[in-house]
Amino acid sequence: MPCPAAATSVQEIDLRVSGLAKGYGAGPVFADIGFTIRQGDCVALVGANGTGKSTLLRCCLGIVPPDAGEVSLLGQNLFALGPAARRSLRARTGLVAQKHNLVPRLSVLSNVIHGLLGRQSGPRYWVQALAPAAARTAAMEALDKVGLADLALRRADRLSGGQSQRVAIARALVGNPRFLVADEPCASLDPQAGEEVMALLISLVKRGGVTVLFTSHNVRHALNFGDRVLGLKGGRMAIDAAAADVSPAEMGHLYV
Amino acid sequence: MSDARALPHRFAAPGAVGFLGYLAAVIVIFWSLDSAGWSLDRLVAAPPRLADFLSRAWPPSTDNLGSLAWKMVETLQIAIAGAAIGILVSLPVALLAARGVLAGRLVNTAVRVILGFIRAVPDLVWALVFVVAVGLGPLAGVLAIALDTLGFCGRFFADDMENTDPGPAEALTATGARRIDVAAAAVIPGAMPAFVSTSLFGLEKAVRSSTILGLVGAGGIGIELKVAFDLFDYPTALSVILMIAVVVVGVEQLGALMRQRIMGVPG
Questions:
Q1: CB A233 within 8 A of CB A51
Q2: CB of A73 within 8 Å of any CB in chain B?
Q3: Which of A141, B31, B79, B122 has the smallest set of CB atoms within 10 Å of its CB?
Q4: Using CB atoms, which residue from B175, B189, B193 is nearest to A118?
């Protein structure tokens, strides 16, 4: 189920990365990385362990500062922005991580309401009991989309892995982001649950017209769900092509 | 068996620096023991003197058990009030002390230095200071305990927050949440079990402290102990000591039970 590759010339560029480099002590993890992602694109980022996929994703959201290079996210130079401007830019983005990253002792509903904190600040958005009706309604709708409305008041640490990841998806989408980053969203799930979660995530973002950049170790996921593939190898971008033009064998070379 | 499969050494020989370190530690320990003024005469004389004290103190006095019990209740009140104030104030202070939560490095360091100073001064000394500031009585004790608890809980709450899983905070940061929202919605709920455990330790510490604050006139049962020793009323002194032991052990057991219940981990 590939994302719509609506390749019209008026498409805006949501993410432009150029000359990006990052290292941790011993040497560069990656260097001179450049690519662009257009609005509505669904892009898979693949590469072996330690090639810096997660770091690259975090650089794209400004969570990790790069050593060199520029990131233009939704038309704004991310690292030239002040804290307030960066926050309001991030209110239009979302992150789904491998570990789900829910607050364990809070309810599912509270966790989803947290996804609105980029737009609404203050104690009323910290726990569901205090939240305004509109926020609770929006969170319930998001939970309904991932099929977990009946678990709204369950504690987040009482969920299965697949349920947790679906709640994390609801939290990332409740604020209607335009750009979503998913860092190996299925890595901690069994193949069946991983398949379901991936299909759910892609169908939801497709419906909402959200631009997606996701990483995966599953070659089939990358080729089936992504409409474009970026492949990192040896700290460089080894593949940047439409998913239809990349063979599984080519992908396999990234891991040797 | 080839060389490659030879058994490894059980112990690694220490390097020159490591050996000097061990040597220095042994010297410091013996030097410290030496300064205690060891004297065989005094050590030999101690058991008979202790036996004499116990024979004069036994059986513990039950004459004014009622008034002693009330003094013990006052002691617990000082501990609870002081610990409650200390724990409440600790939360905002710890938010400023925890690295990467609300404030920058400079504020983190400054607050941690102040908390270190508060901890460095013993609770009995804080009680003396507050006796001077607000006069004799339980209020001085409550303030001393509150400050002592702040020094303890402020530091450990901050450590608890720094050790919380950073994932939820990162997820909220990625949606543009403010630092205060990230702290309140992700960091504090994540650290809550550790806060409860630290607070219970704080309360246990407060109960232990509150029993001796009376020695310097800051309220509580300590004054009864001092008066009993001053008047050579050893049976009453023994009653007070036993009472303190029962209450402190009881509170510690209660704390352990609550930690187990609330967090599902033993102790």
A1: yes
A2: no
A3: B31
A4: B175
Distances (CA, A) of B169 to A52, B48, B105: 21, 63, 18
The shortest CB-CB distance from B171 to any of A95, A105, A122 is to: A95
Task: Count residue pairs from A and B with Cβ separation < 8 A.
Answer: 89
| Listed residue (B199, B175, B172, B200) closest to B184, CA to CA | B172
Q: At what angle do helices A161-173 and B167-174 cross, to 10 degrees?
A: 30
Q: How far apart are CA B206 and CA A25, in angstroms?
A: 45
Chain center to CA of A231: 17
Nearest to A227 by CA among A241, A239, A238, A248: A241
Measuring CA to CA, how many Å separate A109 from each of A26, A126, A158, B59, B134?
43, 11, 13, 62, 49
Amino acid identity, residue B23?
Answer: L
Q: How confident is the model at residue A26 (pLDDT cuts 50, 70, 90)?
A: confident
Specify the 3-state DSSP secondary structure of A36.
strand
E-assigned strands of A158-222?
179-183, 211-215
**Rounded CA separation B131/B140 (Å):** 5
- What does the DSSP 8-state code read for residue A123? G
| Nearest CB partner across the interface for A90, out of B167, B174, B185 | B174
Q: Is the pLDDT of residue A18 over 50?
A: yes
Instruction: Say whether B175 and A105 touch across the interface (CB within 8 A).
Output: no
- Residue that the structure tokens 């023994």 belong to: B238
Rg (CA), chain B: 25
| pLDDT, tens digit, 9 for 90 and up, residues A91-110 | 899 889 888 899 988 999 99
Which of A114, A169, A173 to probe by mutation at the B interface, max B CB count within 10 Å?
A: A114
Mean pLDDT of B207-233: 86
A104 reaches B (C-beta below 8 A): yes
Indicate yes or no: CB of B171 within 8 angstroms of CB of A122.
no
Interface ipTM above 0.90: no
Distance, in Å, from the CA atom of A227 to the CA atom of A53, rounded to the nearest integer, reads 18
Residue A112 has pLDDT above 90, yes or no: yes
8 Å CB contact of B189 and A89? no
Chain A partners of B171 at a C-beta cutoff of 8 Å? 95, 97, 101, 114, 168, 171-172
CB atoms within 10 A of CB A256: 6
Look at A117 and B177 and tell me if their CB atoms are within 8 Å.
yes
B142-176 pLDDT per residue, tens: 999 999 999 999 999 999 999 999 999 988 988 88
The chain A residue lying nearest B177, using CA atoms, is A118
Of B174, B178, B186, the CB nearest to A103: B186
Phi/psi of residue B247, nearest 5 degrees: -65, -45
Percent pLDDT > 90 in chain A is 32
